Amino acid sequence: MSPTYEHPRPALTVDCVVFAVERERLEVLLIRRAREPFAASWALPGGFVDMEENLETAARRELEEETGLSDLFLEQLYTFGRPDRDPRGRVVSVAYYALVNLAGGQVHAASDASAAAWFPVDALPALAFDHAEILATALERLRGKVRYAPLGFELLPRRFTLTELQRLYEIILGRALDKRNFRRKIQGMGLLVDTGDAQRGKAHRAARLYRFDRRRYRQLEREGFSFWV
Amino acid sequence: MSPTYEHPRPALTVDCVVFAVERERLEVLLIRRAREPFAASWALPGGFVDMEENLETAARRELEEETGLSDLFLEQLYTFGRPDRDPRGRVVSVAYYALVNLAGGQVHAASDASAAAWFPVDALPALAFDHAEILATALERLRGKVRYAPLGFELLPRRFTLTELQRLYEIILGRALDKRNFRRKIQGMGLLVDTGDAQRGKAHRAARLYRFDRRRYRQLEREGFSFWV
DNA sequence: CCAAAAGTGTTCTCCATACACCCATGC
DNA sequence: GCATGGGTGTATGGAGAACACTTTTGG
């Protein structure tokens, strides 16, 4: 028999921490568990990895099945494997975090699809398993990485105003930023393209709409440029 | 039967990328595989996770069993789970990276213990499985993180000279640093303690020996200080 | 006394920060 | 015409980068 089969095997799951910015707050998507253990508790979306499936594929599949969300930014976070983290027995979980912009209308589909709901990260319910720890790890990663990688744009619609972008960073970083300095810096990086259009329907001067230039970002990255907010 | 047992289970392993700086180069510890698959190939030390064992514990155990190394800096890197990464079947591997200083004398024990050997990261042999990819990921992490976390000290003996520390950074980062600027910056952080002793037995002026102040680092970290080289 | 590395200051440039007012638009 | 956010420039301080010579020690 092949050596692989000589060893006992933990079960393997994926769990996803999905972030969005909504109503001026950073929020996380949770689902209400239907079954034991932790039936009726809130938990991260996730589930078992299939035998022939990539880990990231499993994360995307579970996310779509449980929340209706697809095609979002998704990155592996950390693997949690304390032997006692699941009362059913040994279950190791590969955690991912995801970013989604709620302007796309996907939200409602997601929220309706099952018992899923958004919670502000500073007002979370009790969570099943070690999901509070996973969520804390994801939050730390997001807050750290958003400063040196262009993650912020994943949380906004394709076209956005400079004020929206600034508010996003203020919400994630938890502190106010100077408007003029923020604009000078972000525009100085040469990663924003003025779409020529303007925001409409607001009772004040219309703001210009920009989009993030991914192509140019990859180019600059290769040349040793580093993003920094 | 509990829900855990309804699912097919991949096998679970840990793999370790152990870095050291030796003879002015960054090197990695590899072992020569005794068995199929990839018998006689070089590979990362690692092996199967036991059923009641923490992931990090498994990594430390395998490292000690296969290379004799213990008590080193170890951090989870990434989890690799492509379905075809192991010809024996589905094997998911949680990768760790470790840092070790070779002045401690552990090396020789390690090298002698089995078919283990150090290779410069820019002159690696062909590796088993997807270990080349794991190693590349670890190298990227090390080079990135060494700049904003005090990892460098893990690669030096407890007491070291400023020149040794500077050489270490030059080797890892792959570029020359200015001596006066490096010293001003590193001493300005207040994280080095002058031991009062000096290096002896060199045919030139004796250099002062310093040690890293971990306690103070943790203190400053809590106060919002950020390390930066 | 010679070879080898240790140790030490100053200048300049650039970037982060602090700060306040006029402009365009919808109602 | 007024309320609301959009958009803009300048002065200052601190940190990074460039740069060369004297000191100490062992052999």
Key features?
homodimer; 229 residues; Nucleoside Triphosphate Pyrophosphohydrolase; Arc Repressor Mutant, subunit A; DNA-binding
Concise overview:
With 229 residues, the first copy, chain A, is of the alpha+beta class. The first copy, chain A, has helices at 55-67, 106-113, 131-145, 162-173, 179-188, 214-222; strands at 11-22, 25-32, 42-43, 46-48, 73-80, 91-99, 116-120, 192-198, 208-212.
CATH C-level label of the largest domain in chain A: Alpha Beta
Average residue-wise pLDDT of chain A: 92
The proportion of residues in beta strands of chain A is: 25-35%
- Tally of separate domains of chain A: 2
Give, in order, the helices and strands of chain A.
EEEEHEEHEHHHEEH
- Give the overall shape of chain A, derived from the CA principal axes: elongated
Which class do the helix and strand fractions of chain A yield?
Answer: alpha+beta
CATH architecture of the largest domain in chain A: Alpha-Beta Complex
- Count of helical segments of chain A? 6
Q: State the largest interface.
A: A-B, 32 and 32 residues
Main sheet attributes: strand count, strand direction, barrel closure of chain A: 7 strands, mixed
